[in-house]
Specification:
Layout lengths: L1 H9 L11 H6 L7 E5 L5 H8 L3 E6 L2 H13 L5 E4 L12 E7 L8 H11 E12 L4 H6 L15 H7 L3 E15 L3 E14 L3
Parallel strand pairs: 1-2, 1-4, 2-3, 4-5
Antiparallel strand pairs: 5-7, 6-7
Helix pairs in contact: 1-4
Length: 205
Amino acid sequence: MKEKWDERYQQEGFAYGKEPNEFFREWLPKFTPGAILMPADGEGRNGVFAAQQGWKVTSFDQSDTAKIKATQLAAERQVFLHYIVGNLEDLRFEESSFDAIGLIYAHFAGDKKAQFHRQLDTYLKPGGIIIFEAFSKNHLSFKKANPRVGGPEAMADLYSKEEINADFGNYDILWLIEEEVLLNEGSFHAGRGAVIRFVGRKKNV
């Protein structure tokens, strides 16, 4: 999988563009800046946006090439990212060390999604925020009609509202919807697709 992403990010230009995801752009400014974790941050478009909003950003991804481009984008926008290259299962952060987590198209293998969500939850402070957007299980027909819209091939790697409710049951739901959107995010998210959008606040328990 690392080779796949290195190859994608080695191409000229930014695979998903330099601008942040629209849902992330809409929701992040609603919250007081603190420390934010950005899993699967790729070439850094969302992490850089968070840094521009005053957040202390820790990004990670599997791809060394992605880190190079993210660092380049951060310098261009005159902000800083703490960027780690590695696999999620190998990374360890202190419990309750982040005020927010941005999960933007962080598609994990179907048999590991719930486990990774539980792992990430331990890093978030009570009262902390998750902002999530990813392709829904209804996306496959859109991908079949237009491969340029991107997304996983396997149904198990896609999301449903039921899975979000199960994985983040200890959260107050501020927003949870499945909808069709027209994506214009670089070369690999281009066209109409079906997504899950979720914003949740971790309960103080």
